[in-house]
Design goal:
This protein is α+β, with helices and mostly antiparallel strands. Helices cover 59% and strands 16% of the residues. The protein contains eight helices and three strands; from the N terminus they run ααααααβββαα. Strands 1-2-3 form a three-stranded antiparallel beta sheet. Helix 2 packs across helix 4. The chain is elongated, with a radius of gyration of 25 Å. The two termini are 22 Å apart.
């Protein structure tokens, strides 16, 4: 899966295309450290002084690198796709190899950091279901009323919870379509842009 980088992000990362390998390694180290402990403005100022650059340029470079690494790790982008994704950034071949090596080396660590930062919401564990059909009653001898009974098992902070649900097939189909529509919407460019801005 290729990462789709917008123009602003490409512009922020373009600063790193002109640095040497040691500086790129240092930027990656700073980016991972910021993911773990939060942003430290003094680090930006020190790096800007050493590189004789504007502090905002350095900040954008580090934040752009943080986004590139976190998105790549979150989506488990393959090495080949990662190379193809950064090919448009104007990095030299040596810097691309260096960035790939850093991504490969730090991918597991970044995924661990992202997992630690994620909220532990109730999540799906198991689902049991049964279809009941009422064929007749005393007053109506020729009827068919299907009902779907579900037992949803979730986990929340290691604690198991069970929710019993009941619905008819028409509502179940509607619910399925609504959820599929929501999943499709999350994959659109507009939604990805909103999520990216929320995560900044």
């Amino acid at each position: 899966m290729l990462l789709i980088l917008d123009d602003e992000h490409k512009e922020h990362l373009s600063f790193l295309a002109n640095v040497d390998s040691a500086v790129l390694q240092e930027f990656c180290k700073i980016a991972v450290e910021f993911m773990r402990k939060g942003i430290n403005q003094k680090v930006y100022l020190n790096a800007a002084q050493k590189l004789n650059e504007d502090a905002d340029t350095v900040r954008h470079g580090v934040e752009g690198l943080m986004y590139l690494l976190t998105e790549s790790a979150r989506l488990m982008v393959s090495d080949l796709d990662f190379q193809d994704s950064i090919a448009v950034l104007g990095f030299s071949e040596d810097l691309r190899k260096e960035l790939l090596a850093l991504y490969t080396e730090r991918r597991t660590e970044i995924r661990t950091i992202l997992a630690e930062m994620a909220m532990d919401l109730p999540h799906y564990h198991n689902l049991e279901w049964r279809l009941d059909v009422e064929l007749a009653s005393r007053s109506l001898r020729h009827q068919t009323i299907p009902t779907v009974l579900m037992k949803l098992h979730t986990k929340d902070y290691g604690k198991d919870e069970v929710h019993t649900l009941q619905t008819d097939p028409v509502n179940l189909v509607h619910l399925t379509q609504a959820l599929e529509g929501a999943l499709a919407e999350v994959k659109t460019q507009h939604c990805r842009r909103i999520i990216r801005n929320i995560n900044k």
